[in-house]
Amino acid sequence: MTADRQPHPLAAGLLPANWDEGTPDPGRLAPEHAAHVGELQRAGADLAAFFARAANGLAAAADLPELDERHTTLLGRERGHVTLALGDLPHVPLEERKRLGRAYNLAKRWLGELEAAQRRALEQEREARGAGMLDVTLPGRRPWVGHRHVLAQIREELLDLFHGLGYSVYTSPEVEHEAYNFGKLNFPPDHPARDAHDTYFVSDTRLLRTHTSPGWVRAMEERRPPLRLVFPGRVYRAEQVDASHMDQFHQVDGLFVARDVSMADLKGTLNTFARSILGAGVRTRMIPIYFPFVEPGAQLDASCVNCAGEGRTRGPDGERRCAVCKGSGWLELLGAGMVHPNVFRAVGYDPEEVTGFAFGMGLERIAMVRHGIPEIRLFLENDMRFLSQF
Asked: Is residue 293 part of a domain?
């Protein structure tokens, strides 16, 4: 076992004498400064004296470089006195460790607050000095101009595309009734999605919608065919968050109901969508897949935008498997199919009179495929280095 020993000392003598020079007044930065010194006095006179001189040094910093230097001396991540003292605490007896640990953490927090207050004061002073000193020979500063989030850009582009194809926008509630989210969409009573560990229930019969497809049901109950609608919105699922899954994301569903609507109409619509989003040269395929609310169901794949559908990429290190499509040459875009007759019956439509197709896509998925984004969590992290690329 490691022998108990005293931690890195915190005493006023560690700090330069000139930190007390001038007329430092920590009280102007933190009115409760005197009370802080008194509280640390109960933990030890040396610690209180160290804190008082450290506070004087921060308050007396004449400019930002000097403030940065003093901050590093006190709180630097590698050699700061407070940092070293905290790092040595595991070697102190337990009772002493509790007392010193609390006192050191208080001192660290209060010194950090003092440093931030002095930094604001120095920045305001610098701006005030420069306000009346305009150098007209300097080049102008380009103003910072924001722009729409990459998901908002994709959403608006998709809505504009489908508007051009004759679709209107329909919005539905995010807190949905179980009957609309599952029952009227032909989900069987024992479907796993109905379980509480897969869906966020807010009451016995209300939940955060797991897809935007309940909008189909509401729209068909309100209107008579023909219908040509898109349903954008946020959806929620109790997912384990990782590089490709989030517990909230965005979808756009589409629905076309009329007489004699066929899979050929669906394929033509989806091909138009894929070429508009990914380029005129993109190849597509539809493969069978099961969804409770469509029959037959299909998945639309597009040729990989990274390797042009070859499944291999070539670089300075030679040829290797494409990391985007995992060597398959195809990327999954969305699910689709012909609306199930049971869904028509649930809303009062006669499946012998009308047919229709529907499709649904995740905006994050479309953006990741289009821009080669590897991590879905990037969309919600507000990292300007990421967002400014789009």
From this structure: yes
Alpha helices in the chain (DSSP H): 26-29, 33-41, 45-59, 64-75, 81-88, 94-131, 150-164, 178-181, 214-222, 263-278, 341-346, 363-371, 384-387
Cα 364 from Cα 351, distance rounded (Å): 34
pLDDT at site 5 = 62
What is the per-residue pLDDT for 1? 40
Q: What is the pLDDT of residue 131?
A: 62
Picking from 3, 158, 8, 180, the residue whose alpha carbon sits closest to that of residue 78 is 8
- Tell me, yes or no, whether 106 and 161 share the same domain: no
Domain final residue pick, 101, 130, 159: 130
Specify whether 209 is located in the same domain as 280: yes
- pTM score of the predicted model: 0.60
The pLDDT of residue 232: 95
Please indicate, yes or no, whether residues 282 and 175 belong to a single structural domain of this protein.
yes
Mean pLDDT by 10 residues, the chain (390 residues): 64 82 82 88 86 88 89 87 86 82 88 91 82 73 85 93 94 93 88 75 91 94 93 91 84 94 94 89 90 92 79 79 78 92 94 94 89 86 87
- For residue 138, tell me if it sits in a domain: no
328 within 8 A of 311, measured Cβ to Cβ: yes
> Do 51 and 166 fall into the same domain?
no
Q: Which domain holds residue 294?
A: 150-387
Query: Is 339 a member of any domain?
Result: yes
Pair (181, 267) in one structural domain = yes
Number of H helices, E strands in the chain: 13, 11
Pair 354, 318 in one domain: yes
In terms of Cα–Cα distance, which of 234, 183, 240 is closest to 210? 234
Q: Examine the domain organization and report whether 235 and 347 are in the same domain.
A: yes
Domain contains 372: yes
- Cβ proximity of 80 and 73 under 8 Å: yes
> What is the DSSP track for 61-122?
--SHHHHHHHHHHHH-TTT-HHHHHHHHGGGS-HHHHHHHHHHHHHHHHHHHHHHHHHHHHH
